[in-house]
Amino acid sequence: NSAARIALEPGESVTAEGGAMIAMSADLNVETTTQQRGGGGGILKAAKRLLAGESFFLNHYTAGADGGEVWLAATLPGDMMKVALGGETIIVQAGSFVACSDGVTLDMGWQGFKSFLSGESMFWLRLSGTGRVVLSSYGAIYAVEVNGEHIVDTGHIVAFDETLKFSISKAGKSWIASILGGEGLVCKFKGNGVVWCQSHNAPSFGHTIGPMLKPR
Questions:
Q1: How is 89-111 classified by DSSP, letter by letter?
Q2: 101-141: per-residue pLDDT in tens?
Q3: Do 98 and 85 touch, CB atoms closer than 8 A?
Q4: What are phi and psi of 155, to 5 degrees?
Q5: Which three-class secondary structure state does DSSP give residue 26?
Q6: Which helix (H) or strand (E) covers residue 151, if one does?
Q7: Which residues of 186-208 are buried (b: 16+ CB within 10 A; e: fewer)?
Q8: Contacts of 174 (CB under 8 A, 6+ apart)
Q9: Burial 143-169 (b: 16+ CB within 10 A, else e)
């Protein structure tokens, strides 16, 4: 169960997912908006974030003259990681975004119905620019270097480089084998780049524990 401590220099800012804050320095200024500061889109972008599994609001933390710190955490138990962007773009799966620095642009990436058919959100987050990004996972998080092709279960994707192309396909040689094997649909990545995976699958956990819960 991880938490992220973000140390801010005087006047430095960080944008975080609504509800992610655990604690912060007393002199930090907090601004809540439906968009990134200096960005456009407003309510429309906020609505798209909801479709992507993120919160409607973003919180912007700015340090005072003495600097400060803010502690952040994700909703589900698991790992957190820092990704440094130097002009690259990464695509982030629903619920995995935690925070980013001012130099990173947060936008929505339309993945189309192939993503919907896989059981995931049709809108994924697109993070680009120069700066640092904090991501979270359900369970352990690890990076897979793709050089050619690699297959990942749709429920275990945290993020991937935009340089990679992906398609949805069945896990086995036939649909019956895929269903009986419990895998169903998978993502086949092609190209050169990194896919960050998580060890646990939230929907699978929900399907398992759901029947055990007593109705209110």
A1: EEEE-TT-EEEEETTEEEEEEE-
A2: 999 998 876 554 444 444 555 568 889 999 999 999 999 99
A3: no
A4: -80, 0
A5: coil
A6: strand 141-153
A7: bbebebebbbbbbeebbeeeeee
A8: none
A9: eeebeeebebbbbbbbbbbbebebebe
